[in-house]
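Support case: pyridoxal-5'-phosphate complex. Customer-provided input:
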Amino acid sequence: MLSVSPPEFVDREFTKPLLCGPGPADLWPSVIEAMSKPSVTTMCEEFYHVLDDIRLGIQYLFQTRSKLVLAMSGSGHAGMEAIISNLLGPDDTLLIAARGIWDERALGVAKRYGNFTIVTEVPISNTFDFEHLESMLKKVKPTALFITHGDSSTGSVQNLEGLGKICHKHRALLLVDTVVSIAAVPFLMDEWEVDAVYTSTQKALSGPPGISPVAFSARAEHKIKNRKHEPPFYFDIPLLALQWNCYGNSRKYHHTISSPMIWALRACLQELAKETLQKSWERHTRVANHFHKRIQELPVKFLITKPEDRLSTVTTVVLPPGYDYLQFVKYMREKHNILIFAGLGPTVGKALRIGIMGVNSTIEVADALIEGMTSTLKGLKKSSL
Ligand SMILES: *Cc1c(COP(=O)(O)O)cnc(C)c1O
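Agent response - structure generated as follows:
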């Protein structure tokens, strides 16, 4: 006797909005196509080729010659959890440079692995200066410093050039979240001496969430080889490195990596290789500059005061008094079919978060947002009278 009857699935109507939140972004047409490619088993030549292509694409993406590059099954958080759990054990201290929600998440992850954590903060509209971070490194002597490159909760971009050297002077590793900055904002892993980095497909790479590139420097690799703790099996980098053939001649099964995901990631990296990093950075900068210039036609204010700290992928703006953030987002969706987001974490009730990235990073999308926002500002004023 079955005690549960089969459910009836009703197909609801769904009009896809233009995805202009802090993620996910719309997909490249080639990525949509790639996801319907045949399923490949984890033990066949074609699967090996796809993984090899992806590893080359990730080395280009992060600008690293490191061999220890692969992709984690899971969204951006899987990358975060992988780098923290592989590099830090209960005897280690993680210094977290906090200016938004992702650093808070890193804190939540680190605590679960019993890492000792110290948080140093700046106000949400600021970024860190290196003197501040160096004085903390001197004082805390952490195993690693965690910092977010682009912060999608506040809309700021952190300068990282030179930070790796400072960390290494104080014997700390540098761990970086590049989820919402990679491919849109310059990032040079080897040149900047970054030790562990993760990103996600769903932001400026214009792919689906579900597979997340990570890379480790030689220093980080040394730390992993000599660690005394064990990370979760699913996130164990040395085991995954055998599946991803990071050192040559190993195709060891660890888990079944999703076929649509590896095809999608390969297509994202192929789009980037075709456009090139420099051109992609330039495009995101040009479109963000255009959007930031035009947004000044509206009665809104930038949350991030210094123009050089503004992130090109996610713009945060403060609405004039009297407007409700959630209502604004709802109106944009209902009347203009554009999806933007209200605040998250420290910016709840304080800012709108507007994402222009990946395939959506075009002047047309920026202009459509300005038009939609102009009409929403007018429309909501009328309805509240
Ligand atoms: C979106 C985002 C994440 C989380 O990624 P998920 O794919 O949702 O797990 C982490 N860091 C930053 C900076 C992000 O923008």
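DSSP finds twelve helices and 15 strands in the chain.

Case will auto-close in a few days if no follow-up is received.
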